[in-house]
C-alpha cells in the first residue's frame, strides 16, 4: 500500500506534520500525530501511530553576563564548599556505604540504597548541573542578587534542594549553607 493510501485511512480531525528523514533517505509518513497520550490512532490493521512525550523539559538558554574566569572561581568555591560539608555530614552519619568523591569538576555523592547524586560544572553554559535520584536533572545558574546557584524554572537554590532531599533520605537535619559563595573568593 502506498504512503498516500495509508493517509486516507487517518481521520480528518488528526493533525499531521510531515518531515523528510534524511538519515535513511525515505520520507517519514508521520512525525507527530496529536492524539491523547493514552490512545493510539490506527493507520491500518497492523500499524499504529503513537505520540511520545519526554519528561525532561527543553533546556533554557543561559544569558549570563558572568565572565568565564568569575564562573570558574564561583563554581570551584561552591564545589569545594559542598565537598567539605558533605564529607563532614557523612562522618557524622557514620554509614560506610555512603561516600562522596570530587574529581575533574564532577562531585558524586553515593547514598547507598537511597541513590547517587552527580553534581558537575558546565563551563560552556556557565552552570552547575545536578542529577538527583529524587528530583531528576536540573541546571543551576549563578544569581548575583542572592549570591547563590538557582534553578530558573522554580527559583530553588542548589543548597536548598540538597538540604531538603538529603534530610528526607537520612532522616537527620542537613544544612549545607551554599549561599554566599562569592564571599569565599574575594
UniProtKB/TrEMBL annotation:
It is an enzyme of class 1 (oxidoreductase). InterPro entries: Frataxin, Frataxin/CyaY, Frataxin/CyaY_sf, Frataxin_CS. It is found in: Mitochondrion. Its EC number is 1.16.3.1. GO terms for molecular function: 2 iron, 2 sulfur cluster binding; ferric iron binding; ferrous iron binding; ferroxidase activity; iron chaperone activity. The keyword Cytoplasm does not apply. Keywords: Ion transport, Iron, Iron storage, Iron transport, Mitochondrion, Oxidoreductase, Transit peptide, Transport. Belongs to the frataxin family. PANTHER family: FRATAXIN, FRATAXIN, MITOCHONDRIAL. This is ferroxidase. It comes from Suillus luteus UH-Slu-Lm8-n1.
Amino acid at each position: 500500500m502506498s504512503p498516500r493510501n495509508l493517509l486516507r485511512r487517518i481521520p480528518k480531525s488528526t493533525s499531521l506534520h510531515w518531515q523528510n528523514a534524511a538519515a535513511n533517505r525515505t520520507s517519514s509518513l508521520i512525525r507527530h500525530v496529536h492524539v491523547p497520550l493514552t490512545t493510539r490512532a490506527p493507520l491500518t490493521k497492523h500499524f499504529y501511530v503513537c505520540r511520545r512525550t519526554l519528561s525532561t523539559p527543553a533546556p533554557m538558554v543561559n544569558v549570563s553576563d558572568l565572565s568565564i574566569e568569575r564562573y570558574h572561581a564561583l563554581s570551584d568555591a561552591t564545589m569545594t564548599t559542598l565537598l567539605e560539608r558533605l564529607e563532614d555530614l557523612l562522618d557524622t552519619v557514620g554509614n560506610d556505604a555512603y561516600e562522596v568523591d570530587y574529581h575533574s569538576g564532577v562531585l558524586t555523592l553515593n547514598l547507598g540504597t537511597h541513590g547517587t547524586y552527580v553534581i558537575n560544572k558546565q563551563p560552556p553554559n556557565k552552570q552547575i548541573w545536578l542529577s538527583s535520584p529524587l528530583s531528576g536533572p536540573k541546571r543551576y545558574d549563578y544569581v548575583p542578587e542572592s549570591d547563590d546557584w538557582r534553578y530558573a524554572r522554580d527559583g530553588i537554590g542548589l543548597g536548598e534542594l540538597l538540604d531538603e532531599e538529603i534530610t528526607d533520605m537520612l532522616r537527620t537535619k542537613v544544612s549545607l549553607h551554599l549561599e554566599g559563595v562569592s564571599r569565599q573568593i574575594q
